[in-house]
Specification:
The protein is an alpha+beta fold. 22% of the residues lie in helices and 13% in strands. The radius of gyration is 21 Å and the shape is elongated. Bound molecules: iron/sulfur cluster (SF4) (2 copies). The site of one iron/sulfur cluster has 13 residues, from α3.
Length: 134
């Protein structure tokens, strides 16, 4: 239970505007959303606030050309983020499920999978084009 001296502050906070922006990005101020659109068009770049460490594990990339459809990656994935596509003998990766462990990249015999430095992956739709790799 709140102590007595805190009660006036608690009441004040009830009627104050939030101090932070609401997430997700659609609530950001136009200055930020316009900037992000420029980033999407390749006209601006976001620099990470700190240098990424060596061997950083960000969004996975996949080279379907080299893939032989062995499905080893899907078998080792602890997050069930990789789905075999039998019709094409390729795979589909659901980035929203990925836990960035890199086990698939380690086991792939063809070097078709690679972790990148991309880490800005927030999205409202877990099945958006940005979060499906195939
Ligand atoms: S990095 Fe790990 S979790 Fe992500 S797809 Fe590969 S094996 Fe699955
Ligand atoms: S382990 Fe490599 S070669 Fe085998 S299915 Fe996965 S991506 Fe393709």
């Amino acid at each position: 239970m709140a102590s007595l001296p805190m009660i006036p502050e608690l009441l004040r906070q009830l009627f104050r505007e939030p101090a932070t922006n609401v997430f997700p990005a659609k609530y950001l101020p136009p200055s930020v959303t316009e900037f992000l659109k420029k980033v999407g068009r390749g006209e601006a770049a976001i620099h990470p606030p700190v240098a990424l460490p060596p061997a950083f594990r960000g969004k996975i990339t996949y080279d379907p050309e080299g893939c032989i459809g062995c499905n080893l990656c899907a078998k080792v994935c602890p997050a069930h983020a990789i789905e075999p596509v039998p019709e094409t003998k390729r795979i589909r990766i659901y980035v929203s499920q990925c836990i960035f462990c890199s086990q698939c990249t380690d086991i792939c015999p063809k070097g078709s999978l690679r972790m990148t430095e991309e880490f800005l992956l927030a999205d409202e739709d877990r099945y958006s084009d940005n979060l499906i790799v195939e």
